[in-house]
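Response to reviewer comment R2.3. The reviewers asked that we include at least one raw input/output pair. We reproduce the pair for Carboxylic ester hydrolase here without editing.
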Amino acid sequence: MQAAEVTCPAGTVVGISDGVVDTFHSIPFLRTAAPFMDAEPAHTGILIDASQPRPDDIALTITTPAGASDTNDYPVIAYIHGGRFESGTHEDPRADGYANATQGIVQVQIGYRVGLEGFTRFPGDTPHHYRGIDDCNLALEWIQKNIEAFGGDPTNVTIVGQSAGATTALWLARKDHYRGAFRRIVAMSPCFPRQSYDDRKSDLSFAFGGMRLSRENLSKASPQRRLRAYKRFRNRHLLDMALGPHPLAPQEMADVDVVISSVRDEFYMNPPAQFADRIGLGALFARTLGRAMGIAPGQVSNWLGDARAMSPRNIAGRLIGDATIRRWVDIVAHEAPGRVWHAELHPDDRNPADHSRDIRPLFGAKPYSAGEGLNGWLVKYARTGEAGWPEFEKERNQSTLIVDLSGRNATVAQDPLGYIRQAFARLDSPQ
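Raw output as returned:
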């Protein structure tokens, strides 16, 4: 390895190079006066050591073709990690940018505050404000100001988000958040809470022993106490998102292009679901919890019939996946104002189609390869903005690409999530 150096408005950034790809690890892009305060842009004009990963920092990691400069104008992919709004890092190896950089892409992996620091709301917060999501907006602003020096084109930025990161990407496209810093979104398995924060905050206060939830009180609580309280709070929302933005309101989104996807078997591997399905109680699980997880009154039996037809041994797993992920995918596909392409990913000969299994093939991480299957598609989409299969037309031609994780066996189906739309109640009333 040798040193790689870039000078940009943020400062002089010193990373590493293997002669093919330059990598700049864990670049600071924000600063906070205290953990629960809104962030500000990081200081500029400084020397930044980006030679070593610091996965616990809130930072950016950038990969570029070796020697890239401001004359290249490579497309930019900005990746926002998942982790249930409570974990994850900008150094996620599943989304490493090496494969993309070898194909002329500049990739930025974005870190942001998770857990209580990123997603607790306080009295006086503006509507729809979450510190973790605002951190991502600061990252996008940093990209606009600095990425040209790394060889990237700031006018051609594609956001890719998975799970909580997909939710964040869609939230950044809201008209009250969107600042023109990206052209398009790839949203993989977004997950929104079913309840508003106001409906959840009493559980969080209870987990702290009835403490009033304020910046001052949470700042005074020790990290150990905050962790214990969060675990108690999370346990009350095991089958939903304990944290995260609410509500999903596609009508509030700007007119940006969206590729929205899910994996077919999202939570077949979820431990409670696996247990219920293994002992033959998946249908009882669904009948007992279906209403609580969002199936409309009188629709549980109808949903069960469709679920049995698809995978009779994974009823509980399908319920969790449909309730937690796929219902939101269907709503975005039908109601986002911009162009939408919809995809459903199926197992390949290397991996089941379980939650998060689509990250490695999309980024060409081992055992997948650069330019292979989904990774080749992503690079082309970032360059051209065209998905390569029919657009999802909400009123008539609800075309969905069905493809396996390796990018093979592609077909186009019509409205494969219609059974979810018929069974699940709407949860889109503003709160």
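Residues 315-335 form the longest helix (21 residues). The CA atoms of residues 249 and 428 lie 6 Å apart. Further pairs are available on request from the corresponding author.
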